[in-house]
Design a protein that fits this description.
Helix content: 25-40%
Strand content: 15-25%
Order of helices and strands: EHHHEEEH
Radius of gyration: 12 Å
Distance between the termini: 18 Å
Shape: globular
Number of strands: 4
Length: 83
């Protein structure tokens, strides 16, 4: 199972994290049963990184800056070898 954690801190939520929480609805069928998605409290990356890198997500522990549904799915495909 591939774990996707989506930061739900205020900055990430406002910068696109809210949309990321809809990731499950956008997953290709080939990935839907292989991915576990969960929201997490603030990862605190926004406090130490330049503005504009939010929202943050982690895919199997790998930090994704400026996370979007598209780039998270791209990382999932990379992990599963579908890309």
């Amino acid at each position: 199972m591939i774990k996707v954690e989506i930061c739900t801190g205020t900055t990430c939520f406002v910068m696109g994290g809210a949309e990321l929480l809809m990731l499950e609805e956008s997953l290709p069928e080939s990935l839907a049963d292989r991915v576990e998605i969960q929201g997490t409290s603030c990862m605190e990356h926004c406090k130490s990184n330049p503005a504009g890198e939010a929202p943050y997500a982690r895919v199997n522990g790998k930090l994704i800056k400026q996370a979007s549904i598209h780039n998270v799915i791209t990382e999932l495909k990379r992990i599963t070898g579908e890309e």
